[in-house]
Amino acid sequence: MLAVSALTVAKVAAAAGTPPIVRVYVAGSDEAVSHARDAIQDLCSSSNVAVVVRDAAGADEALLATSHAPGLAEAYVDLRPGAAPRVVVVDGETRKDLERRTLSEGASLEISIETVAQVVCTAVESSLATRAAPPPPAPLRREEGSGQDAPNSPQPGPEWTSTIDLFAAAANFGVGFRGGAGASLGTTRALGPLRVGALLSFAGYPATDVEGAGGVASFSLLGARVLPTLEWSASRALTAFIGVGGGADWTRISAEQPPPGTLGQRAGSNVDAMLSAMLGVRLHLGGGVAALLALDADVDLSPHRYVIETPRGNQAFFEPTRVRPVTLVGLSLALGGGSRASHVEARR
Question: Residue 221 needs a FRET pair 20 to 30 A away by CA distance; which of 94, 187, 194, 234 works?
């Protein structure tokens, strides 16, 4: 019997590369030991373990306490006549019970052996699965005295975030800075340490007086921009961003007070293509809200020159500058992307 057991172990080791050993001690008749060996080794063959079945020679469960050979698990099976069939499986290292079961006395020897084999192999598979399971993740390091988990490195933001912004702006069209307001909708996506996205914004500057050559005119503007953006989180509270793109401005000018000796003309309007660049920072206030400060520069691709007619010919009245600096401040509310520090997308 020992030779057969050793041969079985050698075959399993050759096929699977030194698999873990499971030792089973069977107390009972020669027939019970032989049939139990066949049933257990056959049923456990799919678990990639080497099963060694030995005759317990009439010993009881105490045999497991005296056996400390290295292995995955050990089992004691009692199939002696006159007693209820019983099986005990213990862990090979901790010696703790993996399974302990008493079977029905009325069952035949064949049924008892099949049941015993199922109990042993199920316990072995459970032990293998437990050892193969990955260890639980280590808890985050806590800052001393804070009582809160402190990450070892900055946590990345959500993959997509969206914001809606309301802002005030001041732009110089060539006659000093004039105030305006607007709104924008932005979205960004994480790309490594940076975030890329786009911004759609609308801004308006109400009618304001422009004086020149003894006359007064009313000038107003509405603008729209689409800006691809790139941002970088300098810290949890501060984010720097840049955007470059373009759009269009609709302007309207009408004579309010013609110069002496001239006649006023009806209001005129035009639409001009614009290039735009923006640079700023966001200060995250918490609760999905952020404040912003940004500088913007607009370039008029088709500048205009407004004149008045005089007896001596045309005379320049108002000429909007081609490059227009813009300063803006505002607040933004995060629409999506969880509780990450708010994104404040800036436009003039």
Answer: 187
What are the tokens at 68?
Answer: 């400390």
List CB contacts of 155: < 8 A, sequence separation 6 or more: none
Taking each helix axis from N to C end, the angle separating 30-43 and 2-16, rounded to the nearest 10 degrees, works out to 0
Residue 336 is encoded by which pair of tokens?
């999506």
Reported as a pLDDT band with limits 50, 70 and 90, residue 342 is very low
Residue type, 215: G
CB proximity list for 168: less than 8 A, separation 6 or greater: 179, 180, 181, 328, 329, 330
Indicate if 234 and 321 belong to the same structural domain.
Answer: yes
Give the amino acid at 40.
I
Tally of CB atoms within 10 A around 338 = 9
- Give CA–CA dist 225/312, Å, rounded: 41
Residue type, 185: L
CA distances from 98 to 25, 69, 75, 176 (A): 15, 17, 9, 85
Quick: pLDDT tens for 64-107: 888 677 888 899 999 898 888 999 998 888 888 889 999 888 88
CATH number at residue 221: 2.40.160.20
Please indicate, yes or no, whether residues 329 and 251 belong to a single structural domain of this protein: yes
> What are 96's two structure tokens?
């703790």
- Domain span at residue 248 reads 160-336
- Residue 14 in contact with residue 58, Cβ under 8 Å? no
CA distance 332 to 342: 7
Taking a C-beta distance cutoff of 8 angstroms, is the pair 47, 25 a contact? no
Distance CA 32, CA 16 (A): 28
Check pLDDT > 90 for residue 224.
Answer: yes
Specify the residue for token string 């614009």: 274
**Number of domains forming the structure of the chain:** 2
Query: How far is it, in rounded angstroms, from Cα 82 to Cα 326?
Result: 99
